[in-house]
Amino acid sequence: MSETATAPVLTAKDFATDQEVRWCPGCGDYSILAQVQKVMPTLGIPRENIVIISGIGCSSRFPYYMNTYGMHSIHGRATAIASGLKASRPELSVWIVSGDGDSLSIGGNHTIHLLRRNFDVNLLVFNNQIYGLTKGQYSPTSEENKVTKSTPFGSIDHPFNPLALAMGADASFVARTMDRDPKHLQAMLLRTNQHKGASFLEIYQNCNIFNDGAFEVFTEKGSKAQETLFLEQGKPLLFGAGSDKGIKLDGFTPKVVNLADGYSADDLWIHDEQDIYKAQILTRIFDDPKVEGHLPRPFGVFYENDRPCYEEIMALQIEDAKARKTADLDALLKGKETWTIV
Amino acid sequence: MARKQEVLQDVVIKFAGDSGDGMQLTGTQFTNNTALLGIDLSTFPDFPAEIRAPIGTIPGVSGFQLRFSSDRVFTPGDACDVLVAMNAAALKANLGALKKGGKIIVNTDGFDSKNLRLANYPDGENPLENGSLENYEVIRIDVTKMTREALKEFQMGMKEKDRAKNMFVLGFLYWLYGRDMSNTTDFLKEKFGKKPDILDSNMKVLQAGYNYGDTTEAFAITYKVEKAKMPSGTYRSVMGNQSLAYGLIAAAQVSGLPMFLGTYPITPASDILHELSRHKNFGIRTFQAEDEIAAITSAIGASYGGALGVTTTSGPGMALKAEAMGLAVMLEVPLVIINVQRGGPSTGLPTKTEQSDLLQAYYGRNGECPMPVISASTPADCFEAVYEAVRISVQHMTPVIFLSDGYIANGAEPWKFPATADLPPIHVKFKTELGHGEEKLQPYLRDEKLARPWAVPGTAGLEHRIGGLEKQNITGNISYDPENHQLMVKIRQEKVDKIAEYIPEQKIDSGAAKGKVLVLGWGSTFGAIKSAVSELIAAGHEVSHAHLRYVRPFPKNLGEILKSFDTVLVPEINNGQLIKILRDVYLVDAKPYNKIMGVPITKTELVEEIRKYL
């Protein structure tokens, strides 16, 4: 017999459960689930050490379909539950699955605090710009003037820009991907996992029932090349059919240039994930694709920065306190001043 | 100078002054000094919600009541023997609580025209001069002047010098009660060791106050209170929130569970966070969350991961945590939710005491959502009671609500602290592998207590999913089946009811097991009820006192006890909450006695009330 037990090689199937998946046929969530199940076996993390925490909403059914540890909690609080879990069990790989309503509306407060504290967790925000589970009200990411069941005359709310919000909360990893680009989604899941610290991954996800086609200009063949900008570390910002266009920084303002007009890659904005200032400009590229002269929507890792994680510092403080003072319960209960009655 | 020393049995002193006058510190120091002499005591700090209400006004008055006695005491006293009034407002606010003939020690400097005006005395009226205090013994001291005089060689501003005023009063009282001052000098050395100026000035003024009493011929008598006849053992003085924190630490140590406190600051619970955060050497993780909801949900996350999750709050925070409590009930994970009650509703009376969250604890959640409720009756009792809350929580896999209140939290009393070796065990059982014949974990398969297994992430082979949706019995899979829902509701209820088999039977605290009147209380009314009932028993009346620690479920024999008395009287600092539940559960025609003034029930008023039924 071999001395060392080798861990069995797991496949996507090992991460599926016997529960019937109950999203609407055609929902973008299926693709996200499939990509997560594909990526998980490649992470080298024992399955028992993976925990998926969700809130409420369509996306939040996710844990039931993943053969890991999981909790389907209450609306908006998955981030806070994950914080307590990670604080007390730093060795676990904690994933939070949430939607735009769950993490940016009812749970907005916990989201920003999770990011600023920088727990080493992965926050996947399935953004479909609509409330699906409650059957079609506008969400905090819905575009202005959206006609829904709750806004028959059009919504008045100005939408969140989720990545700008994450940057504002000092997230240490900020990225965007989409359900309809499985390869990119997988790559972003890997990067999200690799990052040590709070990772904010926004995933554009199509709700084909209540908000069908919300992102189709970014996902469909006919428009994708023109409307999307895929960020790659150290590479110039190129887009368009055959990468014929690029983004150039004119002061602080990004401008589209045609390479055919004599611009070379050297003239373009070179992506640097470590550059917090440029990352903020990138998150601000959030133009409405219907508006003339708009910029393409960026996808990829906008920003990554290593800074200490909350749970690590917490553990260090405890180790330090233990080293300074023995935990003597009798001494604690006795205190400094006592008297004896005979 | 030789003086007569008079021996007293029981003294109630109220220190009252402006919020900035350091009355809480003065009271605490005198309390510790008293405790170290083995004199029994009980305290009642009473301070405004405002950090610094306008100086000199009645809303700005901060008080600290201390009762000490050579007999056992259970309340801080209904009326005061001695009132220390640092200014006119302090006198005006507290004179009503002073016994006729009591002593008033006044700082005459606090009675200038400005202070009199701020205290709303009519123009030209000065209580020190108009004869209105002739039924009292007034000791006039110009504390401000003498403090400045004592510090005349100190190079510090007048404002800074005046800050030591409370030390003058403390020194004087130490002299008046024949005390040694070393606990306070030690305290000052520790607190101001790094600020020699402040240390020296405080020491100087403390001594000056003492000397003032000693050398002034006007004071002919000093007083002494002998040691109390208390059970033998070693004691310390402890405050409610402090002993509560110690109880949690002890339970974590004994159970071997790492403790995680998720909390959000709120009066009067914050001191539990302050205390626990100092003891990280016990492996305690304290997390000051962004709000009350994150506080409880982070604790749920920690419990899910195998820690002892705890959250602390007060009424309004409790309301915010309600939904998450429901989640904990559905997940069936251990969790201790501590509510240090205060006056409500809404923001209510943040610094005043009340017992008005019992119904919230019982019923304040959506759905059929039963949780055990445990309560503490005195500051020292918090230790044992919260230890019990932890035991029940981890052994029965259920969130537990623990009720304290502002009166208990800030009060102090002697505590015969336990030795670690004498603490009862808290057995924790994690599920580590599948049972025989089990193919996958059945997260809602129960043991004889109806507790489900605690299978924590990181345990290979036990991967499973739980959540707030109704689950199928045993498998934990989502289920909307009507029969199953009814079954699960009944099981969750039965699980909580079953705890009655694992807690002690209800004891009668004072009096016979049957008779005319049973005074049944819970929480901080303990001292008042005990004192009132003891007095009536001594006077030959048929009255008994029982005090509940376990409020949900009730001890098995409670129904029998209730039937053994002609009248059951239920005093509460609320509009009648326990009594509603008693009437519901036992169909007993119990009588209420309710006081909702933000202050404790007094012994005197309770004696009067009980007499109506004798």
TrEMBL record, chain A:
**Entry's InterPro entries?**
2-oxoacid:Fd_oxidoreductase, THDP-binding, TPP_enzyme_TPP-bd
Keyword field: Oxidoreductase
Q: Which domain of life is it from?
A: Bacteria
User: Which residues does the UniProt record annotate as the domain Thiamine pyrophosphate enzyme TPP-binding?
Assistant: 56-203
Record's PANTHER family?
2-OXOGLUTARATE OXIDOREDUCTASE SUBUNIT KORB (PTHR48084:SF4), 2-OXOGLUTARATE OXIDOREDUCTASE SUBUNIT KORB-RELATED (PTHR48084)
Q: What is this protein called?
A: 2-oxoacid:ferredoxin oxidoreductase subunit beta
Pfam families listed in its UniProt record: TPP_enzyme_C (PF02775)
From TrEMBL, chain B:
Report domain Pyruvate flavodoxin/ferredoxin oxidoreductase pyrimidine binding positions. 258-472
**What are the protein's UniProt keywords?**
Oxidoreductase
Give residue ranges for domain Pyruvate/ketoisovalerate oxidoreductase catalytic.
20-211
Gene3D superfamilies reported for this sequence? 3.40.50.920, 3.40.50.970, Pyruvate-ferredoxin oxidoreductase, PFOR, domain III
Question: Which positions fall inside the Pyruvate:ferredoxin oxidoreductase core domain?
Answer: 517-583
Alphabetical list of NCBIfam families matching this protein = OAFO_sf
User: Could you tell me what this protein is called?
Assistant: 2-oxoacid:acceptor oxidoreductase subunit alpha
